[in-house]
Amino acid sequence: DTGVSQNPRHKITKRGQNVTFRCDPISEHNRLYWYRQTLGQGPEFLTYFQNEAQLEKSRLLSDRFSAERPKGSFSTLEIQRTEQGDSAMYLCASTPKGAGVTDTQYFGPGTRLTVL
Amino acid sequence: GQNIDQPTEMTATEGAIVQINCTYQTSGFNGLFWYQQHAGEAPTFLSYNVLDGLEEKGRFSSFLSRSKGYSYLLLKELQMKDSASYLCAVRDTGGFKTIFGAGTRLFVKA
């Protein structure tokens, strides 16, 4: 396994612009999660997929955020009309098929977003 | 509501034992996790408890009391490389949503 990968690793954008991040989970992992983490805080749940189905989405997620996993493999997270408050590390994690209740999550290195 | 409390920071000496506590109040419970996160890196899995009691894995042990909404992570024979944040996380029932605490920053000094 090459691990969970995320691209880009860093993104600087101006307020009001749209950004899109990509996550490639570990091969054969069927559950995929997105989190947001700010300095000094733990990861904050945003959404998760089982295969291509988006099963839960945080109420904290505004309509400016959307995530997709069209073929049940990689996923994208798009933020429209970015705001300075969106500046954070965006983490992706995946869990293997058959993990059951233990569901250990393997995290990617994250995409650090800075909104100017 | 969902609430997970951990101390913000702890300091311990190399070779010693440290216990990091976590209390939680969540609408549901389907397991508690501990993750380690070094500065600037992604979290990595340490332990999982779903039943009451102690789970031991090498230098790391984790304890759970569901009736008290309490867990702790015990680190033995501390090494400098153990300096990191330790995240307590609870999985909600009915799905796989996981709520993380803010983390405890552990400083190991020589």
How would you describe this structure to a colleague?
The complex is a heterodimer of chains A (116) and B (110). With 116 residues, chain A is mainly beta. In chain A, 0% of the residues lie in helices and 51% in strands. Chain A contains no helices and 11 strands. Chain A has strands at 5-7, 10-13, 19-24, 29-37, 44-50, 53-57, 65-68, 75-79, 88-96, 106-107, 111-115. The radius of gyration of chain A is 14 Å and the shape is globular. In chain B, the strands form 2 sheets. In chain B, strands 2, 4, 5, 9, 10 and 11 form a 6-stranded mixed sheet that branches. The model of chain B has no long low-confidence stretch (mean pLDDT 94). Chain B has no helices and 11 strands. Helices cover 0% and strands 56% of the residues of chain B. Chain B is mainly β and 110 residues long. The chains are: A mainly beta (116), B mainly beta (110).
For this entry, give a set of tags.
heterodimer; A: 116 residues; mainly beta; 7-stranded mixed sheet; 4-stranded antiparallel sheet; 11 strands; 0% helix; 51% strand; B: 110 residues; 6-stranded mixed sheet; 5-stranded antiparallel sheet
